[in-house]
Amino acid sequence: CEGTAIILNQVTHCLIAGCTIRNVGDDNGNGVFVAGGARNGVVGCDISDIGTHGIHLGGGDERTLTPAGNYAENNHITRTGVFHKQGNGITVTGTGNRVSRNTLHHLPRFGIMFYGQNHVIELNYIHHVSLETMDTGAIYGGSLNWLSAHGCVVRHNFIHDVVGRSGKAGRWLAPYFAWGIYLDWTAMGVTVTGNIIARAPRAGIQDRKSTRLNYSHGKLSR
Q: If pLDDT is split at 50, 70 and 90, which confidence band does 210 have?
């Protein structure tokens, strides 16, 4: 299909499990799109060759901080962003959602991108990402919306080979301008703990404009 393969729109307790989703999506089409609702899951799916994002996980109220409890767990995602190079492995928005135990690799931009509040991003294995873009990272949070990327927890993820690629002065540069965990713009009250990061060209963690952050018990190496 040219659009999104599976859409869960304002539903509750639905589960997409053990599916193979491939060769779908255009420059605005995803593998799975969870739009609102509560306690919905995408679990154990193989997702590849997607026009934009592998999974877009939304839900929850950003103003009342009501959590959705939607989750993406134990999925294998690769080769997203076939048409739209801002395409990520998983994009999570809203409030109170979870991204855990996923394997994400060979992606043009972020492995995981988070907006909204009070998400948990844990125990993911992310490698060989940011293959076609710069100013990027394996896990990225923040936006120009001042309600975004507050109170999230990024813990116990294993990240390596964040590349970064850019055209400059008529030639391509790689590795270039990329980080392991990138906290940008409005990320506040974010806890980053217990992550292992190797081979990120600029640094393991980038805190660009954030406040009230807590880093602990991580390991950084080149």
A: very low
